[in-house]
From TrEMBL:
Listed SUPFAM superfamilies: Tetrahydrobiopterin biosynthesis enzymes-like
Domain of life: Bacteria
Alphabetical list of InterPro entries matching this protein: Dihydroneopterin_aldolase, FolB_dom, GTP-CH-I_C/QueF
Reactions listed under catalytic activity: 7,8-dihydroneopterin = 6-hydroxymethyl-7,8-dihydropterin + glycolaldehyde
Name the record gives this protein: 7,8-dihydroneopterin aldolase
SMART domains from the UniProt entry: FolB
Organism encoding this protein: Hymenobacter properus
Family: Belongs to the DHNA family.
Domain spans labelled Dihydroneopterin aldolase/epimerase: 4-116
Lineage of origin: Bacteria, Pseudomonadati, Bacteroidota, Cytophagia, Cytophagales
Primary enzyme class: lyase
Length: 122
């Protein structure tokens, strides 16, 4: 078992509880952590034996383009997509951050973290 991480992904997107947030947009950050078996890729040096970083990025980017009211919803969609499309993934953890959220004061970012684990082996 091993971990693949994509950290510091940044997107401009139109998420937010308030209608004006969905109109003007904001900057968001994503950190993604994937647990999977990396031994075969380590031995073979073949991309087909691991999870392709480009595929992970594409899945996150596609979900970030679809507006949502809550960061929790965005994170949940990403977890579901990864588990549905990448059967070798055992566990996914995601942090989704909104930079400078409209709270009426100084806050560098608001962040949610969700984790999903595959219950049965594929």
């Amino acid at each position: 078992m091993g971990q693949i991480a994509l950290e510091g992904l940044e997107f401009f997107a139109f998420h937010g509880y308030y209608d004006e947030e969905q109109k003007i947009g904001n900057k968001y950050g994503v950190d993604l952590y994937i647990k999977t078996n990396l031994l075969a890729a380590g031995e073979s040096d073949k991309l087909t034996e691991t999870v392709n970083y480009e595929v992970l990025y594409r899945l996150v980017a596609e979900e970030m383009r679809a507006p949502a009211r809550l960061l929790e919803h965005v994170a949940h969609r990403v977890l579901d997509r990864i588990m549905a499309e990448l059967p070798h993934v055992r566990k996914v953890k995601i942090n989704v951050s909104k930079f400078n959220p409209p709270l009426g004061g100084i806050c560098h970012r608001a962040r949610v973290t969700l984790t999903k684990r595959r219950t049965q082996p594929e």
